[in-house]
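sorry for the late reply, my laptop died twice this morning and i had to redo everyting from scratch. anyway the thing you sent over, i finally got around to it. pasting the sequence first so we're on the same page, its 167 residues, then the predicted structure underneath. double check i copied it right bc i was rushing
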Amino acid sequence: MKQISITVASVLMLTQVEAHAFEAIANVVGVAPITEQVNHPTQQCWTETQQVTQAVPQQRNYLGAIVGGVAGGLLGSQVGRGNGRVAGAAVGAGVGAVAGDAVANQDRSDNIVTTTTPVQRCRQVDNFQAVTTGYMVTYEYDGQRFSTRLPYNPGNQLRVNVAVTPR
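ok and here's the structure:
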């Protein structure tokens, strides 16, 4: 019971020390925009030409390898007896094919071709812009000057909340 009465007495005392608050109009004496540099990067692209050099292979001539293989096989089969003739024919055909291919394609060379190709190049370019992020406002109320930062320009007058509390 004693605890309840102390709580009630405390609540009554707090209500007697209540603060008085009201709204008033203050005169604005200065407004300064607060700006900040913000980067909005952009992409800058252009087209360049680039020369590309490549070798274009010519068609191979396989007739020399075929003729050389047949001739080598025939010559190789003349060497040895029995299974030696088969082995000689196989070795002769292989050597004849390589030699015939070398003779048939000895003057062959790849053509070198140079072409021009368009290539797109891009780079990122900084684009700084001044952006207003708020306003430093100086205002006067009841003969005193105050400053605050606001997200907007208040104009010539500013609504302020005034609170009066006892000391």
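Helices lie at 2-16, 63-76, 83-104.
thats about all i looked at so far, will dig more tmrw
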